[in-house]
Amino acid sequence: MRVLIPQSLQGWQSFIQQLELLRGIEVYREEVKNKNYDLVIKLQTGGNEAELPPPFQKFLAILNSDPLQGESLQMLQAIIDSAQDAISVVDENGRGLLINPAYTRITGLTEKDVIGRPATVDIAEGESMHYKVLQTGKPVTGVPLKVGPQKRDVIVNVAPIIINGKLRGSVGVIHDISELKKLSDELDRANWMLRRLRAKYAFEDIIGSSPGIKRVIVQAKKASQTPVTVLLRGESGTGKEFFAHAIHNESARSKAQFIRVNCPAIPDTLIESELFGYEEGAFTGARPGGKKGLFAEANNGSIFLDEVAKMDFQMQAKLLRVLQEKEFTPVGGTDPVNVNVRVIVATNANLEEEVRKGNFREDLYYRLNVFPIYLPPLRERKTDIPKLVNHLIRRFNQEYGRMVKKCAPEALELLQEYDWPGNVRELENVVGRAMIEVNYNSEVLEAQHFPALGLAYKLADIQVGEEEISADGILDLKGALQKKEREVLRRALSTSEGNRKKAAEKMGISERNLYYKMKKHNLD
Questions:
Q1: Among 82, 277, 455, 498, fewest CB within 10 Å belongs to which?
Q2: What is the pLDDT of residue 470?
Q3: What is the pLDDT of residues 484-507, one digit of tens each?
């Protein structure tokens, strides 16, 4: 096929490069009688249209027209320039050959920045899909990246360009999703603001199918159908706040406000005014007109008092009055205020022991302990760990821009062997750290991504004694592990002269985990 290149065509040299990449082309000059044209090129056949994005399929359609005139080439340039999505083409070595105006608009990079430069020049976060396609010869689609100096959020599709069976480069189409991402973030922010006034979680958000967690969900659902005060008990990180939200959402008060109060976070001198409000002039610096307290804000809704055992004795008495009389008196006021509020409290303390020591009012204990719900620690429901890990992987993929699909069986086994003294919160921390460590294109979390847990289980040198072997000759592996762990703990503490921080560092575990293991083995 002969093609006439018009003299009026802007940048025809760049066109030649484009056409060479899309088709095998032999270019040669020929004396042309028509003075409106100054170059003739011959097109080879055999391009693979199916592997190219739609804009380039249109180019090929134009190239395949017979005859192809200079006007068609101008149309080809117009299609490239008018495409709303950014287009970028590299050669077989990953060097930039072609971009369009949309590419410059989206990335902020010009031809001078890109042409002849490596394909990574536009990558702000992630890896170049051009290089991946050049390595594999296979197209990739729907890859999220951040590009350009402004780190614009985009979705990238890249396909190989194969000419006569030979890989000649790759072409990428970049979809700008930054505005969509901005709208999504604003929607998330609006939902977050809305959820500050209403509970965020429902029972459907609680991950787990073990008997222990199922039993707790059944109890909590029963409690939600009555106005009874609920006492959520369990170790730190077991999900007490999740259940508080879910109880409120399942109740008849779900359309009203849900107020969360972290009791230890409020100084003793301020907690009364925060909970019950104050009248104008109640104290120096009081707001004109007074202030509405959190109990008043939660009227007809629910209030969640987290770590209620940390309240001082005086505040415990005032809380008891609210629970018994359904009323309170603002600071500086004289008239009681009636309130209709559902109270949910949580603690990780041993309330019975605190009552015995005189740190917690016995009458308040009995008022709170009407419907106690005990949340099991993660070590008692390890069968839920795979589901929890999968949930966390999906969440951190969105937050960190990763593409992890699963956790390797060896890594899951490692996670299930660990006792998790920090419970689900610690699991979240460990998985989050592993997700940061993996490469952007990694699809599997491996055991190597959990180095701290690996160190905790390097007990390959266990010496098995006769006491670990039962009468029928079966090895009590758990007993052997426990014995070895106790020996390692004692040795680490001894060589650290009782310095627990140093002992934890030697064992490759956290201080919190060390304290837990010491308590388990009675080494306090």
A1: 498
A2: 46
A3: 778 788 888 878 878 888 888 777
Tokens standing for residue 298: 């939660």
Three-state secondary structure string covering 244-266 = HHHHHHHCCCCCCCEEEEEHHHC
Helix 70-82 and helix 54-63, axial crossing angle in degrees, nearest 10 = 170
Query: Cβ contacts of residue 196 below 8 Å, gap of 6+?
Result: none
Distance CA 19, CA 38 (A): 17
CB 98 within 8 A of CB 119: no
CA 112 to chain centre: 37
| Angstrom distance (rounded) from CA 41 to CA 24 | 11
Torsion region of 144: left, alpha or beta (phi above 0 gives left; psi -120 to 50 gives alpha): beta
Percent helix / strand / coil, the chain, rounded to 5: 50, 20, 35
Reply yes or no: is the peptide bond before residue 227 cis, omega within 30 of 0: no
Q: How far is CA 101 from each of CA 104, 116, 188, rounded to the nearest angstrom?
A: 5, 17, 32
In angstroms, the Cα distances linking 260 to 176, 197, 301, 348, 411 are: 39, 9, 11, 17, 36
Beta strands (DSSP E) in 277-433 are 302-306, 327-328, 337-338, 342-347, 371-374, 406-407
Longest dimension (CA), the chain: 110
Mean pLDDT, 10 residues at a time, the chain of 524 residues: 45 52 46 48 42 43 44 62 85 88 91 89 90 92 89 90 86 85 65 56 92 95 94 94 94 91 88 90 74 91 94 92 93 91 95 94 94 95 95 91 90 90 93 90 89 54 44 51 76 81 77 78 78
Other residues' Cβ atoms within 10 Å of the Cβ of residue 46: 10
* pLDDT at residue number 492: 81
Q: Which secondary-structure segment (H or E) carries 446?
A: none
Q: Name 260's Cβ contacts closer than 8 Å, sequence gap at least 6.
A: 241, 244, 303, 304, 306
The full DSSP string for 96-118 is: EEEE-HHHHHHH---HHHHBTSB
Distance of alpha carbon 62 from the chain centroid: 46
* Selection from 41, 49, 44 nearest residue 72 by Cα: 41
